[in-house]
Amino acid sequence: MAKKQFKAESKRMLDLMINSIYTHKEIFLREIISNASDAVDKLAYLALTDDNVGLNQSDFKITLTTDQIARTLTISDNGIGMTKDELDSNLGTIARSGSLKFKEDMAAEQNLDVKDVDIIGQFGVGFYSAFMVADKVTVITKAYGSDTAYQWESTGTDGYAITEAEKDSVGTDVILHIKEDTDDEKYSEFLEQYRISQLIKKYSDYIHYPITMLMNKSRQKEKPEDAGDDYTPEWEDYSEWETLNSMKPIWQRAKDEVTQEEYDAFYQDKFGDYEKPLTTQRVSAEGTVSYEALLFIPGRTPYDFYTREYEKGLQLYSSGVLIMDKCADLLPEHFRFVKGIVDTPDVSLNISREMLQHTRQLKVISKNLEKKIKSTLMDMQKEDREKYEQFWKSFGLQIKCGICSDYGTHKEMLQDLLMFHSSNGDKPTTLAEYVERMPEDQQYIYFATGETVGKIASLPQAERIRDKSYEILYLTEDVDEFAMQVLVSYQEKTIKSINDEDALPETEEEKQAAEEKTEAAKDVLAFVKETLGDRIKEARISKILKSHPVCMTADGPMSLEMEKYMKRNGADLQGMAAEWVLELNADAPVFSALTDAVSNDPEKAKKYVELLYNQALLIADLPLEDASAYTDLVCSLMV
Ligand code: ADP
Prior knowledge:
By secondary structure, the chain is of the alpha+beta class. The chain is built from 21 helices and 22 strands. The strands form four sheets. It has an eight-stranded mixed β-sheet with strand order 5-4-3-6-2-1-7-8, with helices on one face. Residues about 115-125 and about 350-355 have low confidence and may be disordered. Adenosine-5'-diphosphate binds near residues 79, 80, 82 and 90.
């Protein structure tokens, strides 16, 4: 039988498994059981509406058998099975593309060789983990609705073979040919029934189908009637099916009965995370809609979280039967990082999955969970700031996007979760804490935008606000300024950019003085505008500069930072481009030099204008139109 080759990535993954020196090889069983349980879920779901399945909910199970002599451990399920094509594509290729790359990156990050990283076991590595303990794996499977059974067999990286096979019932047998013991590894333990039942308790106890094993036992034979006084008891061997797991879903057990370790293990297994969750939350509700929910916030951003591949949603069960793997309607978009399950007797099992998405019950649950998640986060923010900062690092961007989406509908829900860096110190601050610190005479909440905290802190516009001892929020992410526009205000304090002319309220005298300065500089401003032409909308005497001679701002709703963002993302700015304003400080000595040159040496004045314009670009982190022309200009003014 000709062998088929594994796809390149799968081959590398297999190689990793075969040569793994990972110490928790035992997790292979969890992975195989988990696949079996998924397959059973699928057929059990069909059985709810399709009598042809011919099985009752109580018929579904997973069975284990061991054979010491043949050195095999067999895991069988009466789930949905696989067709020939499915066998080929599911076991011939790694389903989750990119996951290996991620593992390799992780290994590099930890400065480890990819094959001996902890991550192997903790990742939800799937079917191939069988090759950590088996030198040959045989899968015999018959798909629901198919007449023919097939066998898939592989001894490792040299490929696999698929042949027709004999199997009466629908489902899958995974037969692991356990490796011989070596000096370092005692693989035989995976043939010991006691050890296997331990592993099932440890990793798969909550699986809601019975996991049964044919246990080899021995018992004393009954004493024969005619036995004399010198009778010595005789023993006999027998075998008996025993259920190894309690089957009680973790979310249906009493809260004080479940340890955090159990929650962690459940989370890691179910959601394929190698890290423990940041938070674990149980929610129960009774009333118009009754449900049990178990929610987790991951400890770090899933690698695909900010990609289109990531699917949000909670697992939906109806009285212990899995109805939907990722029910998106149970979670608002801004909390899409939450993982978990909802079990409710109140959703009807007979309606199709599409219909289900529109039921009123799901909306009620979703609204309720949204509030619960928010309060968990608020508690964390107050009681465990370090943890909250970790959360914020992972998912803060999602919260900010939530502020901006749906025309700001969710801002009330989310604004207290926000954190920003600020001039107050190294640690990010919430808006509430900012307002708390505001001196009495401060009217507005100030923000400034830029690429890094350092760059923002040195913006010339920040000087006069800081001189007043007013705190400034430092916005470094693209979405930040959009979020501020949506927020408008917080606790009735208007949110203002430090670039706003009226960021600091002016007295009548100040206003008049500013008008006089502008009037006096009329000719200079006209000269500047004429020199720069369409490159700017206007040149003006600045009200926001203190000691520095120049800066660039923008009139209208589009700020410079927003414009940069749009350009980076290839947006067509026609008609929406920022209106650039070159602001000049009339009190700076350089301005007198410019004024002088405008009247006495217009050629030199033009050079000064170019110089100031380019400086403003540099400060605003805008690209110079012609860097070498600029440096030539600086040099020419030096000699
Ligand atoms: P994952 O379970 O994360 O998708 P695996 O490598 O563990 O990745 O399994 C690959 C695929 O093989 C599964 O998604 C499933 O489609 C199929 N599969 C594995 N075991 C079984 C089984 N016992 N019954 C039916 N299908 C299975």
